[in-house]
Predict the structure.
Amino acid sequence: MSRTSYAIPFAPTTFDSESVVPLYKQLYEEVRSAILNGRLSAGTRLPSTRTLADELDVSRNTVSSAFDQLLAEGYLESHVGDGTYVARTLPDDLLHIDSSQPPPRQTAPKGRRLSQRGNLLMHTPVGVLHTQIHPYAFCSGLPALDAFPFDIWARLEARFWQKPQRELLTYGNAAGYKPLREAVAGYLGTARAVRCTPDQVIIVAGSQQALDLTGRVLLDPGDSVWIEDPGYLGA
């Protein structure tokens, strides 16, 4: 059998041109599988039928037929004038999962050997912190969400992106956006009496990255570390 692979924006698709299964049915099964295994998450916007047909080099009727069946079965939602989305609530019969069965044990892919660090990470239990919908006062790690100036933020963002700098779409300084580092250094000098220059400020993605960088720069294996108790659980 001859098989032709196509690259589409949301999932790898292989059409079997010699199969008795129609192309629209093959596409239907591929998108349905992508939804069920999480490759296409709820609320994901799909390409238009015309765009997807061009991408896959098939007729638009093929894509429309697949989408129509997915819509009819409740896997997709159509928003008039806005496009087609993965349904936020899947058909009921797909939601009955036997929670009594333990999750499958993770193993290294066949033919591949993980590093010592990779094995350690694979067997390290990971806990997920679930934030409450209505966090209580002085909740660790959460600012006053109700005090965030959303309106001001939206106006500043809209004004900035009217004439964005092309440099922002390429690689930048590893320490972070320089004007932001200058603003942080200025704020620390005024509000916290910290004497520092922008070159001493590093912008990170969050506290975990900051701790990771700090540990790599300051610590060697076997070193002792003192931390506050109580303190940040993520440390």
Q: What stands out?
A: The first helix runs from residue 23 to 36. DSSP finds seven helices and four strands in the chain. The chain has a mean pLDDT of 80. The longest strand covers residues 3-7.
